[in-house]
Design a protein that fits this description.
This protein is of the alpha+beta class. It has one domain: Winged helix-like DNA-binding domain superfamily/Winged helix DNA-binding domain (Arc Repressor Mutant, subunit A), CATH 1.10.10.10. It is built from 5 helices and 3 strands, in the order H-H-E-H-H-E-E-H. A 3-stranded antiparallel beta sheet has the order 1-3-2. The chain is globular, with a radius of gyration of 15 Å. The protein starts with 7 loop residues before the first helix and ends with a helix. Keywords: Cadmium resistance, DNA-binding, Transcription, Transcription regulation.
Amino acid sequence: MNELMPAEDEVYFLSEFFKVFADSTRIKILFVLRDGEQCVNDIAAALEMSQSSISHQLRVLKQNRLVKFRRDGKTIYYSLADAHVVNILSQGLEHIEE
């Protein structure tokens, strides 16, 4: 096997990671959060979608460590997990615009 090929389990987890980006709503949420921290209501309003739809997609993004959250009373605020997420979005956009 090629020395540069990652281990089989790493290839599997990488393919699962990229599946998260296969949903346009999740991509839109990430772009909204690129501008800063938002609560579910604000994200739903920005995307003109239901709060439950946004919550469902945020759960997937959270499970894959693409977003993080903090609680302030009853309100939960979401933000991008780290700079890697911005880089992934920027690289993907740059690639398709070539």
